[in-house]
């Protein structure tokens, strides 16, 4: 049975994630250096697992590992010393070892242990000769031990590099999911560097502005130019005031996209400060609220306010005597509400939150025993303010000793980390909300690799009858209707282009459900980029739009029927938009007025009217529209000029089309006939 010490050692080795990995040039170079330094035909870096010595790198040795029972185990109880075996053939411990009696015919052996920072013996750097050696000096032993230390540092650097790579991968995935959530919520984030006036926008902020995210980030002047002039002045004033006073702001403004469309936006900002309390940047959220039509200004104000950043105070410095009593404290204690004399003479643990007392006592005892503070020890706890509230601090102690090595004084720097703790809690809550969103969203969310493989599928796929693993096990193309496959594959190729998904591409396809029927889905992709900027993954939210598509098909059919009737009617059929411009004129206009239909597209209805009939006709139509939905069709007569200048009497019958559930005019349809004969 493995004892606790061996269990901890094996766990530490596993944490390095190096066993059974491929050769690496750095470790190969180190064993070659060891062999050259000691003029040895064989050198190796061995790591001791539960059942074998595995060679991470070797020189002059053809085997990859040996059973643990066959290894030179005389080093087991030698601490950090270099073990030397001058002649294994004469050493009764090893004379019968197969590695001595057979290949590689070991005679001389010298090994220095690989010891982790926690004191675990992970393995050995050894040099081996096939002939005995009479001596191995202390200088040589020290040199081998130094090389072993270098190997251990290489292992630590490798572990750190792998940990960073894993963390970066997790961060990239998390960022992609946050971008997805950003798009689903219609909220983007932004930052302004006060020193350079340069902004940084998330993709959603670019989308709200109607700009391409692949372009250069605008500076403050360019960003303000996107707003209506009066609102630009408001935003600029808020920015200036925030930089000068450190005050957050939350405003609603109107910006104008390059295509001329206006968007109502909420701009929320908080200030970033340096250690001297000077504002160095502004950051916040940016939300398109055009579709929300917010009418309650109080609600908008409460949603827009952000918390003030409080971590601007200098660190709190406390001097403790050898009994742990405060003998001096910096003036920064006033930020906690105390005067220095109210703290001097007390022990710091008397200010610690009861739930954190064990952590604080352990940290204090660690500072006063041993060779010095263990910086791996958690030194985070809550300190009580004078008003009874608490704030999180992180301690960093320095021990001062007398000439005999006894602790004379401990100087502790306590840094306020309340904001960081709150951020960690907020992040945890955000991740929980995001995971809940993914697990409970009615949309089907799919993460796709650059090779087209399906990496993840949300439970939203169950609306189509599938479990996530069923979709992951099959090609995505197998679910697309054959008639839509070419478009779907083209859209997927576009997703992984240099600029990421082109949102101008319509991503609507028929998706095969498990029952064998097809449902229309609409894709909304987001690119995840690698360090080199290339798209490495795409996260897409697919929404069932079958009802919408069926409605579109039905509408198209009705419009085709209406157009067929209009094209063959003897009366002039005209459609006007809400601004009064003609959008459709039937062919009958040629026979009655002498114009081709396209000559009148975009014109106002009164351009052909007799001057005396313009105002009465406009008043008649305005009154009819003002009556709103449900009013009877308006019928009126007026004189109009034909293209040849002659005048005819016309009778018009108008029909107003309003937005469902509102009195907002969408279109005015007019049927006009020649009544001159009357």
Protein architecture, described:
The chain is α+β, with helices and mostly antiparallel strands. The protein is 32% helix and 28% strand. The chain contains 16 helices and 26 strands. The strands form five sheets. It has a six-stranded antiparallel beta sheet. A five-stranded antiparallel beta sheet has the order 8-7-11-10-9, sandwiched between helices. A five-stranded antiparallel beta sheet has the order 13-12-16-15-14, with helices on both faces. A hairpin with a 4-residue loop joins strand 7 (187-193) and strand 8. Helix 2 (25-37) runs antiparallel to helix 4 (138-185). It is elongated.
Separation, N- and C-terminal Cα atoms: 114 Å
Given the structure, what is the number of helices? 16
Q: What is the SS-derived class?
A: alpha+beta
**Radius of gyration using CA atoms only:** 39 Å
Low-confidence stretches: 293-313
Strand order, main sheet: write it out.
3-2-1-6-5-4
Oligomerization category of the chains in this entry? single chain
Beta strands, count? 26
Write a concise synopsis of the structure shown.
This protein is an alpha+beta fold and 678 residues long. The longest helix is centred in the first third of the chain and has 48 residues, at 138-185.
Which features does this protein show?
678 residues, alpha+beta, 5-stranded antiparallel β-sheet, 16 helices
Question: Which SSEs are present, and which pair or pack?
Answer:
Blueprint: H1 4-15, H2 25-37, E1 42-48, E2 52-59, E3 65-67, E4 83-85, H3 98-101, E5 108-115, E6 121-129, H4 138-185, E7 187-193, E8 198-201, H5 203-209, H6 220-224, H7 229-245, E9 249-256, E10 262-273, E11 279-288, H8 297-304, E12 316-321, E13 326-329, H9 357-368, E14 380-384, E15 390-401, E16 407-416, H10 418-440, E17 444-449, E18 454-457, H11 468-472, H12 485-495, E19 508-512, E20 518-529, E21 535-544, H13 546-568, E22 572-577, E23 582-585, H14 588-593, H15 597-600, H16 611-626, E24 634-641, E25 647-658, E26 665-674
Antiparallel strand pairs: 1-2, 1-6, 2-3, 4-5, 5-6, 7-8, 7-11, 9-10, 10-11, 12-13, 12-16, 14-15, 15-16, 17-18, 17-21, 19-20, 20-21, 22-23, 22-26, 24-25, 25-26
Helix pairs in contact: 2-4
């Amino acid at each position: 049975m493995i004892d606790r010490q061996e269990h901890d050692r094996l766990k530490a080795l596993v944490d390095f994630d190096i066993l059974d990995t491929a050769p690496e040039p750095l470790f190969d170079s180190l064993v070659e250096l060891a062999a050259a330094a000691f003029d040895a035909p064989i050198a190796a870096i061995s790591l001791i697992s539960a059942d074998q010595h595995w060679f991470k790198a070797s020189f002059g040795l053809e085997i990859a590992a040996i059973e643990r029972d066959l290894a030179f185990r005389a080093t087991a109880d030698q601490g950090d010393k270099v073990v030397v075996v001058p002649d294994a053939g004469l050493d009764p411990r090893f004379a019968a070892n197969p590695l001595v009696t057979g290949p590689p015919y070991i005679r001389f052996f010298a090994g220095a242990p690989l010891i982790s920072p926690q004191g675990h013996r992970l393995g050995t750097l050894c040099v081996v000769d096939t002939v005995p050696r009479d001596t191995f000096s202390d200088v040589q032993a020290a040199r081998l031990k130094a090389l072993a230390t270098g190997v251990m540092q290489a292992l630590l650097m490798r572990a750190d590099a792998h940990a960073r790579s894993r963390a970066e991968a997790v961060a990239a995935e998390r960022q992609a999911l946050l971008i997805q959530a950003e798009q689903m919520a219609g909220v983007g984030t932004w930052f302004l560097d006060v020193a350079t006036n340069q902004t940084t926008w998330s993709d959603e902020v670019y989308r709200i502005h109607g700009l391409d995210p692949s372009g250069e980030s605008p500076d403050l002047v360019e960003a303000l130019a996107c707003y209506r002039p009066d609102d630009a002045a408001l935003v600029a004033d808020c920015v200036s005031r925030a930089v000068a006073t450190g005050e957050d702001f939350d405003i609603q403004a109107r910006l104008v996209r390059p295509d001329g469309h206006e968007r109502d936006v909420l701009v929320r900002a908080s200030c970033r400060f340096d250690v001297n309390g000077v504002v160095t940047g502004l950051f916040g959220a940016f939300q398109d609220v055009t579709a929300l039509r917010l009418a309650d200004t109080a609600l908008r104000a409460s949603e827009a306010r952000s918390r003030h950043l409080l971590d601007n105070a200098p660190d709190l410095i406390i001097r403790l005597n050898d009994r742990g009593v405060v003998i001096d404290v910096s003036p920064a204690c006033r930020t906690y509400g105390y005067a220095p004399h109210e703290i001097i003479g007390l022990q710091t643990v008397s200010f610690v939150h009861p739930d954190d007392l064990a952590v604080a006592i352990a940290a204090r005892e660690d500072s006063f025993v041993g060779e010095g503070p263990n910086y791996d020890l958690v030194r985070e706890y809550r300190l009580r303010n004078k008003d009874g509230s608490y704030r999180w601090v992180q301690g960093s102690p320095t021990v001062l000793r007398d000439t005999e090595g006894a602790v004379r004084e401990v100087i502790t720097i306590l840094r306020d980390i309340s904001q960081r703790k709150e951020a960690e809690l907020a992040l945890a809550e955000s991740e929980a909300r995001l995971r809940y969103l993914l697990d409970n969203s009615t949309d089907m969310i799919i993460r796709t690799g650059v090779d087209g493989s399906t990496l993840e599928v949300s439970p939203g796929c169950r609306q189509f009858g599938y479990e996530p693993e069923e979709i992951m096990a099959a090609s995505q193309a197998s679910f697309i209707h054959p008639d839509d496959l070419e478009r779907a594959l083209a859209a997927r190729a576009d997703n992984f282009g240099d600029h990421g998904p082109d949102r101008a591409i319509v991503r609507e396809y028929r998706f095969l459900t498990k029952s064998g029927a097809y449902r229309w889905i609409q894709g909304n992709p987001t690119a995840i980029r690698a360090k080199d900027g290339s798209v490495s993954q795409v996260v897409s939210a697919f929404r069932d739009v079958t009802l919408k598509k069926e409605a579109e098909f039905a509408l198209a059919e009705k419009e085709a029927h209406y157009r067929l009737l209009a094209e063959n009617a003897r009366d002039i059929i005209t459609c006007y938009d809400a601004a009064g411009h003609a959008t459709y004129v039937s062919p009958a206009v040629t026979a009655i007025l002498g114009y081709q239909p396209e000559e009148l597209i975009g014109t106002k209805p009164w351009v052909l009217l007799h001057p005396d009939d313009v105002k009465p006709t406009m008043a008649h139509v305005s009154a009819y529209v003002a009556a709103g939905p449900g009013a009877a069709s308006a019928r009126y007569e007026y004189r109009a000029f034909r293209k040849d200048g002659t005048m005819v009497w016309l009778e018009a019958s108008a029909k107003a089309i309003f937005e469902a559930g509102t009195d907002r005019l969408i279109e005015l349809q007019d049927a006009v006939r020649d009544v001159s004969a009357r």
